[in-house]
Structures are given as structure tokens and as C-alpha cells.
């Protein structure tokens, strides 16, 4: 690993946390924070912004699945659950909460490395898809604004569609503003002049 991955771990049993930390450090990871309950792990992750959170399910105040849901919804860090419980209901809840991987205790050191790497890879894929979706939404919104602005220019200045588009393009280049900003300005001006 070129850069040490930063992890936060959470388990209500300090002996288990200590063993997990030793194992993770031995695998080359950096444990930047430890927590004993679900509320503390959320606060710690918000503050430290780790690359991954590894936690138990059964913890006081807030269980690991509820904490995972918060961390996932707030896009703070991916969550790997490390737990002695593997019943169907818990696995389903974990999946719905956005948990990216699940390892059943007692675990072997050899199971942890691939589980962590797969969890990080999946999380990065999700983030990339999220970024692409946002880019597409932005592109679509810009297109809609440019179309409306072209309509305004065609109506107010008697331009043909390609001329209106070219005018928006020219204004964009001349002012070093995006076509979206130019379209918004045209639409705003049209609203003011009504």
C-alpha cells in the first residue's frame, strides 16, 4: 500500500477492539479511532473522516446497523460489519443500511484483508456512480436552461435556433462564463423585462 488506509473501529468489548486493532495494524492499516458504542462511532467518523469503519452489530446506544445507515446516508465512510451474528434478518438489515461487507466472528486474519479491500473497492465504485449521476443531472439541467434561453433569444431578437445557440456560445466564450451561467442570465433578464 502506497498510502496507509485510515480506519475507525467500534466494538463494545475493549478486548475485542484491542485484538482487532493489533490485527489491522499488523496488516498495514492505521487505526485512527476507536469507539465502544454506535453514537460514538458516528461522531468519531464525522470528525476523522476515515477510509473505512469496521464495527460490531450489537453495541449500546445505537446498534452497528443503525450507525452504518447514518454513515452511509451522510456519505462519511464505507462500513464493514464484523459480528458474531449472521442470521438472515441481520444480513438483510445490513444490506439495506448500505453496509459494503460483512465478516462473521471469529474471523481469521486472512479473511480480513480481502474483506476490507473489497469493501473499499465497492464503496469507490458507488461514489464514482454517484458522481456520474450528478454530472448527468447537471448536464441535463444545463441543456434545459440553454434550450429555454435559446427560445427567449428567438422570440425577443428574431433569431433562428442555430443563431440563438451560437450567440449563447459566443457570450460564454467572450465572458469566460459557462453556457449555463449565460443561459441563466438571459432567462433572468427576460423575467425582469416582462
UniProtKB/TrEMBL annotation:
Keywords: Phosphoprotein. It holds the Pfam family Response_reg. SMART domains: ANTAR (SM01012), REC (SM00448). The modification 4-aspartylphosphate is found at residue 56. One of its GO terms (molecular function) is RNA binding. Residues 6-120 form the Response regulatory domain. InterPro entries: ANTAR, CheY-like_superfamily, Sig_transdc_resp-reg_antiterm, Sig_transdc_resp-reg_receiver, WH-like_DNA-bd_sf. Coiled coil: none annotated. GO terms for biological process: phosphorelay signal transduction system. Residues 126-187 form the ANTAR domain. It comes from the Bacteria. This is Response regulator receiver and ANTAR domain protein. It comes from Roseiflexus castenholzii (strain DSM 13941 / HLO8).
Amino acid at each position: 500500500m502506497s498510502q496507509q488506509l485510515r480506519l475507525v473501529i467500534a466494538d463494545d468489548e475493549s478486548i475485542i477492539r484491542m485484538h482487532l486493532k493489533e490485527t489491522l495494524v499488523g496488516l498495514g492499516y492505521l487505526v485512527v479511532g476507536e469507539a465502544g458504542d454506535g453514537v460514538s462511532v458516528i461522531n468519531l467518523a464525522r470528525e476523522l473522516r476515515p477510509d473505512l469503519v469496521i464495527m460490531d452489530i450489537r453495541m449500546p446506544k445505537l446498534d452497528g446497523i443503525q450507525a452504518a445507515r447514518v454513515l452511509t446516508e451522510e456519505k462519511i465512510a464505507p462500513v464493514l460489519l464484523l459480528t458474531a451474528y449472521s442470521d438472515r434478518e441481520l444480513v438483510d438489515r445490513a444490506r439495506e443500511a448500505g453496509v459494503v461487507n460483512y465478516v462473521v466472528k471469529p474471523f481469521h486474519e486472512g479473511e480480513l484483508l480481502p474483506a476490507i479491500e473489497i469493501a473499499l473497492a465497492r464503496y469507490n465504485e458507488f461514489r464514482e456512480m454517484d458522481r456520474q449521476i450528478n454530472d448527468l443531472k447537471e448536464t441535463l439541467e444545463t441543456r434545459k436552461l440553454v434550450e429555454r434561453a435559446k427560445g427567449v433569444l428567438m422570440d425577443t431578437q428574431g433569431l433562428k435556433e442555430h443563431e440563438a445557440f451560437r450567440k449563447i456560445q459566443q457570450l460564454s466564450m467572450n465572458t469566460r462564463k459557462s453556457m449555463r451561467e449565460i443561459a441563466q442570465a438571459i432567462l433572468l433578464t427576460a423575467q425582469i423585462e416582462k
